[in-house]
Amino acid sequence: MKSETITPKQLLYTPNENQLNSSVFHVKSKSSKKTVKSNASPFGLIVLVSSFVVMIGAAFLVYELQPDFHQFSVDRINSTWGFIFLIIATVLFVFNAGFFLYNLYLYFKYKPIPSVSDDLLPTCTVIVPAYNEGKLVWDTLLSLADSDYPEEKLQILAIDDGSQDDTWYWMQEAKIKMGDRLSIYQQPENKGKRHALYRGFNLGNGEIFVTVDSDSIVKSDTLRNLVSPFVTNENCGAVAGNVHVLNNNKAILPKMLNVSFVLSFEFMRSAESMLGSVLCTPGALAAYRSTSVFACLPEWINQTFMGEASDIGEDRAMTNMILKQGHHVLFQRNAYVLTNVPEKYSGLYKMFIRWGRSNVRENIMMSQFVFKDFRRESKFGARLLFLNQSLKIVMAYPLILFMLFFILTHPVLFISSTLLGILILSSFSVIFYAKRYNISESFWAYSYSILYTFGLFWITPYVILTANKRGWLTR
Q: In whole angstroms, how far apart are CA 150 and each of 135, 136, 144, 210, 226?
């Protein structure tokens, strides 16, 4: 499959060094060599090497401990609970294997929609909500201003959500530079991203609304690629952009997340797009048909969960409500955005907690319509995606209980088999990223899987218990 080749020369906006080094600017073509410069730090190299050492060591242990694994399997089959667990595990394995193969088939069928001509492009309002982003919002707004989009069809709105730093100053500076192309507004107090977007929706006059996070950079052709599906598909209600990591040369966690994001967006959302049912249009870059937004805007801004106003998950909520209207939600692989992600563990788990709580809430909401006649076309894809998401939530506690039992009774068997599983399963992510981008960065998939398995496994059970809690956490 041909890759979209992205180079810094394609940008009219001049990014800084970290932005230029991001992997999104180094997509290889089939005819070129993988010559991406490695930016691995000594500590990063130690992490990568250590990941391989423990996985290879685990594979050796699994080989050496075959009699113990066999005895463990026999004991499990001969016990009632063990036999029940074996049946459940087999069913889940068959489902997940089938789901993966189906996604692989859809991925190879997927093709992004090429940009339409200038005269066919719809009018577009870009909304940039910002809170305590400082100079980052300046970079975001200037990258938008340099978009290859007809000026007369583009409206850019920036909303300062009661920032306590110099965000408003940088918005004013951007206004001075951009003139009438940019309109800036200031919320009287911090009310949350949802309310900032709500104000933007009501101020905008475009046929299409585009939301961009204020710590993100878009490529010059991103906007036109993002909105083109609305022209070619009259039932398209929303489009998700392709998110890569902006700060992946600053710390190890962003390097890991960049590989994870590529699999999440370019593989999973490509498959979801073929089903017309992308489950979440990311806050970093998403587009919505204005009529679809206004059809659910009162419900969206007044959304509650267990009696409390919803102040998180505004992107997943909007996606759900547009799917509920019977519209398609698509993904555009050729609409790139680079966004900042947490560089420390504390920021990472807080981000995942926020996402996890939103996922639990919106799965409950989706259950209220996904098995009804919500769409004229086939509803199989949306229902399959919902079942896959729901299974991960439902099985969270049984799996963690089994994991704890396995650790307490056979710690060596658990650790060795888990690490071997990571080596095998994560190899798909490595191969996928290496083929799309480059080999050197792809190996972070192994380190990320180890981190997630042993350092973030607790998040799903935790968010299920605390799904009603409010708070952005990372602000």
A: 26, 25, 12, 15, 14
Q: How many CB atoms lie within 10 A of CB 114?
A: 10
Please tell me the distance from the alpha carbon of residue 53 to that of residue 45, in angstroms, as a whole number.
Answer: 12
Is residue 228 classed exposed, middle or buried when 0-12, 13-18 and 19+ CB atoms within 10 A define those classes? buried
Query: Distance from CA of residue 278 to its chain's centroid?
Result: 11
pLDDT, tens digit, for every residue of 6-23? 433 333 344 444 444 444
Residue 178 to residue 227: CA distance in whole angstroms: 22
What is the distance between the alpha carbons of residues 423 and 437, in angstroms, rounded to a whole number?
A: 20
Domain span including residue 177: 1-475
In this structure, what CATH number is given to the domain that contains residue 56?
A: 3.90.550.10
CB neighbour list of residue 73: distance below 8 Å, 6 or more residues apart = none
- With a CB cutoff of 8 Å and minimum separation 6, the contacts of 121 are 149, 150, 153, 224, 227, 228, 231
CA dist 388 and 98 (Å) reads 11
Query: What pLDDT does residue 250 have?
Result: 87
Contacts of 399 (CB under 8 A, 6+ apart): none
Closest CA to 144 of 216, 209, 200, 193: 216
pLDDT of 26 above 70:
no
Number of folded domains that form the chain: 1
Pick the closest to residue 288 from 429, 122, 66, 132 (CA basis).
122
- In this predicted structure, the answer to whether residue 3 has a pLDDT above a threshold of 90 is no
pTM of whole model > 0.85? yes
pLDDT over threshold 60, residue 112: yes
Residue 36 has pLDDT above 60, yes or no: no
253-311 pLDDT, tens digit per residue, is 999 999 999 999 999 999 999 999 999 999 999 999 999 999 999 999 999 999 899 99
Using one digit for the tens of pLDDT, what is the confidence trace for 161-219?
999 999 999 999 999 999 999 999 999 999 999 999 999 999 999 999 999 999 999 99
* CA dist., res. 145 & res. 177, Å (int): 10
Residue type (1 letter), 347: G
Q: Give the separation between CA 257 and CA 65, rounded to whole angstroms.
A: 33
C-alpha angle 171-255-26 in degrees, rounded to nearest 5: 80
pLDDT of residue 82: 83
